[in-house]
Amino acid sequence: MINKLMNNDETKSDEIKVHLIDFDDVPAHAFPFFTSYRMFFDEEIKCYGFFQNEEIVAVTAIIPDDPNSESIFMSVGCPIVYVFEVREDMRRKGIGQLSAEILVRDIIDRDTIQLCCSPFVTPFWQKVGFNISFFDQSLYMHRMVLKKEKNEEEKVKP
Q1: Other CB atoms closer than 10 Å to residue 58's CB: what's the count?
Q2: Alpha-carbon span 105 to 109, nearest angstrom
Q3: Are 96 and 58 in contact (CB under 8 A)?
């Protein structure tokens, strides 16, 4: 379990906790986008739920970077964020950004990730600290490879 305190006036400084979950436990009515892609999930995909006050507020499906994988998904040497969705009534409250920060810091912990997404989510991932290094529109869903921006402390580290 990973905890993070929220510091946002709109959400009352509640904790966000993340747990590995079974994708069948994700409520379809609350996460329609996630649910619509469930048919493509295989046993290698890891699903995580982000909880606030014991309520699920966001979900993600991650395809780990594994060169020995027999998954139908092709990796480019980094984990794939296959689906990331915040519950509709919880959007625009900082929960998505906080959940994504927890995801890339505590679960993925990599400087490069691949997204299967729509290009309209680019500004969101830029807020989390990533820049696009590759973009492909030839698939049924856009594919982006994002690299984490280095902050000033990381730039001066020997």
Answers
A1: 27
A2: 5
A3: yes
* 15-18: Cβ within 8 A, 24+ apart: 15/52, 16/50, 16/51, 16/52, 16/57, 16/95, 16/98, 16/99, 16/102, 17/50, 17/51, 17/52, 18/48, 18/49, 18/50, 18/51, 18/99, 18/102, 18/103, 18/106, 18/107
Tokens 């830029």 locate to 126
Rounded distance between C-alpha atoms, residue 24 and residue 108, angstroms = 22
Q: Which residue has the tokens 């993925």?
A: 108
The continuous run of DSSP H or E covering 53 comes out as none
Q: What is the pTM of this model?
A: 0.75
Domains in the chain: ranges and CATH: 2-151 (3.40.630.30)
* Average per-residue pLDDT for the chain: 75
Give the list of residues 6+ apart from residue 102 with CB closer than 8 angstroms, or none.
Answer: 2, 4, 16, 18, 50
Q: Which of 17-21, 63-67, 88-92, 103-107 has the lowest mean pLDDT?
A: 63-67
Please report, for the chain, how many H helices and E strands are present, in that order: 4, 8
